[in-house]
């Protein structure tokens, strides 16, 4: 059934002044396209101005013209596109969900998602009408409001028993989408370039990074969401009230000086007397350059905090032997053997390519035949022997280079790298489950902090925050100067004030760009371009101050949503009562509380 043939059926609803944002510049074509929305029988359609009537073929139930009503939206989100057109139609039986958002300026937009899991381009209603559209849709489908996000509605046929099912079925990625993601990210392409490969995969699958911001008890006050059948309030033309979160003022945070004292924290045998205090001072101001070589080995787990000076000598001797045993394994492989080991050959090729272009502006790695490049290569090859399941993935050279620069030692840099990889190794796994989870958690935090910014990103097809992928993959290595990244990483290695502080750093950066993003005529491509151009333009102290202030603001909120609490490590789902896990969890909680007094930035931060 073509779009021009919708006239043969009963017209249920029609509204002009609807604009589709394509988010893809085609030559000189405008990316904001005017048109109108139409509901005919059990079909919803957007028809671009000037395209109606192009197909004059008479309706024939057995004939499918070019403008075919589709049952599965194409993955490139250009549903039923003909030539340069952007009109589309979708049977209501194929509508999976509908999400409505509204900017503070008053514009409303809807995002429709098909049962295939693919969102259509956002529809912007410049003249209102979303409420009337929903009433028209309810003649044929049930719109079930999410108990977790008042702007998200799942669509069910009137005769469906699916309404009794849990909203948990709305996953980050359903099975089909996850399969599409895995198909899109082949193993070899991922190993060579996880950023570009995964970014491409994200563009082909559903990106349901919609935060669930309602706390467990959300029946009162401004959090109650209206049913679409109720009359609208005076200041809200279309049918749903936005869920707002009263966070309270954001405190001003002062950072401290770098830690420049070490000996006073050691007892006569060389043990660190107060590790929590050390971590707090490092979090507050970083480490003075002369002390980094020693302290990084503690922060990255090479040396235990309670080890004596003599024990550390023994550890170094043992770890040196172990390192060179692993190094000999790959050094002793002959060329003939390597020709029959494609995996090792592939790792070596990738490492040689990446080493030749890692931090070459730094004098430690600059020039040809630089011994620093040889060390970088050898440590990465040895890591493949240490963790052959993971091997080498592009980006690991970025993690090693600063560590090698600080330690100036092959063995120590290797074991510090293994400690670093314990924190981030899941970022490099082929499944990318950890990266998907972190992007979801980032969207949860950002929506709690700035729902308007999230709505804007949603409207520009950027709500997945996939442009932050590189930030999280290698911990902002390419966003800050080499010297700044040394400070940023040692702050993150303290694991204060929470395990996901790197996500708060991402929020701090995004909020610093809020005015530029919302205040300009950005689409998906220009948002990505703007984010990439932030490289080397960020002030690390301002970003860290902003991230800590965000943490304090969120943790002081009396009604913080449960999912935000989980991201910040403030709440863990309880285990069944009486189980060993529940008893262990209670013990861990008591221990955490006993340590919090000396290391929690809420008590140690110097506030203006």
Automatic annotation (TrEMBL):
Transmembrane segments: none
GO terms under cellular component: cytoplasm
Assembly and oligomerization: Interacts with non-phosphorylated form of RAB8A; phosphorylation of RAB8A at 'Thr-72' disrupts this interaction. Interacts with ARMC12.
Chief localisation class: cytoplasm
Compositional bias ranges of the Polar residues kind: 592-608
Keyword Cytoplasm: yes
Chain segments carrying region Disordered: 571-608
Intracellular or extracellular location(s): Cytoplasm
UniProt keyword list: Acetylation, Cytoplasm, GTPase activation, Phosphoprotein
Keyword NAD included in the entry's annotation: no
Domain Rab-GAP TBC as annotated: residue spans: 286-496
PROSITE patterns: TBC_RABGAP (PS50086)
Organism of this sequence: Takifugu rubripes (Japanese pufferfish)
Molecular functions per Gene Ontology: GTPase activator activity
Function, as annotated: Acts as a GTPase activating protein for RAB7A. Does not act on RAB4, RAB5 or RAB6.
Record InterPro entries: Rab-GAP-TBC_dom, Rab-GAP_TBC_sf, SGSM1/2_RBD
Protein's recorded name: TBC1 domain family member 15
A Pfam family recorded for this sequence: RabGAP-TBC
């Amino acid at each position: 059934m073509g779009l021009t043939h919708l006239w043969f059926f009963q017209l249920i609803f029609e509204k002009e002044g609807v604009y589709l944002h394509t988010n893809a510049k085609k030559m000189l074509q405008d990316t904001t396209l005017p048109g109108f929305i139409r509901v005919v029988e059990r079909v919803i359609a957007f028809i671009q101005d000037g395209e109606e009537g192009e197909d004059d073929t008479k309706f024939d139930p057995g004939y499918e013209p070019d403008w075919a009503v589709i049952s599965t939206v194409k993955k490139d989100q250009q549903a039923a596109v003909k030539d340069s057109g952007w009109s589309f139609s979708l049977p209501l039986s194929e509508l999976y969900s509908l999400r409505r958002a509204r900017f503070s300026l008053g514009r409303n937009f809807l995002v429709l998602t098909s049962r295939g899991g693919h969102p259509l381009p956002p529809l912007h209603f410049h003249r209102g009408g979303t409420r009337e559209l929903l009433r028209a849709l309810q003649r044929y489908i049930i719109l079930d409001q999410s108990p977790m996000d008042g702007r998200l509605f799942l669509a069910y046929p009137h005769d469906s028993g699916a309404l009794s099912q849990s909203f948990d079925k709305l996953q980050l990625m359903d099975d089909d989408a996850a399969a599409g993601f895995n198909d899109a990210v082949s193993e070899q392409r991922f190993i060579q370039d996880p950023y570009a490969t995964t970014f491409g995969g994200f563009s082909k699958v559903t990106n349901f990074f919609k935060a669930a911001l309602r706390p467990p008890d959300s029946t009162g006050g401004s959090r109650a969401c209206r049913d679409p059948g109720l009359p609208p309030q005076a200041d809200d033309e279309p049918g749903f009230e936005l869920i707002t979160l009263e966070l309270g003022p954001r405190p001003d945070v002062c950072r401290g000086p770098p830690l420049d004292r070490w000996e006073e924290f050691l007892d006569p045998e060389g043990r660190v007397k107060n590790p929590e205090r050390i971590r707090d001072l490092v979090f507050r101001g970083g480490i003075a350059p002369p002390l980094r070589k020693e302290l990084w080995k503690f922060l990255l787990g090479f040396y235990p905090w309670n080890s004596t000076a003599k024990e550390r000598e023994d550890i170094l001797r043992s770890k040196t032997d172990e390192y060179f045993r692993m190094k000999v394994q790959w050094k002793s492989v002959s060329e003939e053997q390597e020709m029959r080991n494609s995996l090792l050959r592939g790792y070596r090729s990738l490492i040689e390519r990446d080493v030749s272009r890692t931090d070459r502006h730094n004098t430690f790695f600059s020039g040809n035949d630089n011994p620093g490049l040889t060390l970088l290569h050898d440590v990465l090859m040895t890591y493949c022997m240490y963790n052959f399941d993971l091997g080498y993935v592009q980006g690991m050279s970025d993690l090693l280079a600063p560590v090698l620069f600080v330690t100036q030692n092959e063995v120590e840099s290797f074991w510090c790298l293994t400690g670093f990889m314990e924190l981030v190794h899941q970022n490099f796994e082929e499944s990318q489950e950890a990266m998907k989870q972190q992007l979801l958690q980032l969207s949860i935090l950002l929506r709690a902090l700035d729902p308007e910014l999230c709505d804007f990103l949603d409207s520009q097809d950027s709500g997945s925050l996939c442009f932050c992928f590189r930030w999280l993959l290698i911990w902002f290595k390419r966003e800050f100067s080499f010297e700044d990244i040394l400070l940023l990483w040692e702050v993150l290695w303290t694991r204060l004030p929470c395990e996901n502080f790197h996500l708060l750093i991402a929020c701090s950066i995004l909020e610093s760009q809020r005015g530029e993003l919302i205040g300009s005529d950005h689409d998906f491509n220009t948002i990505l371009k703007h984010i990439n151009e932030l490289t080397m333009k960020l002030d690390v102290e301002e970003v860290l101050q902003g991230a800590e202030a965000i943490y304090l603001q969120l943790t002081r909120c009396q009604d913080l949503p449960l999912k935000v609490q989980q991201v910040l490590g403030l709440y863990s789902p309880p285990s069944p009562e009486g189980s060993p896990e529940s008893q262990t969890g209670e013990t861990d909680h008591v221990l955490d509380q006993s340590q919090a007094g000396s290391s929690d930035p809420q008590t140690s931060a110097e506030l203006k």
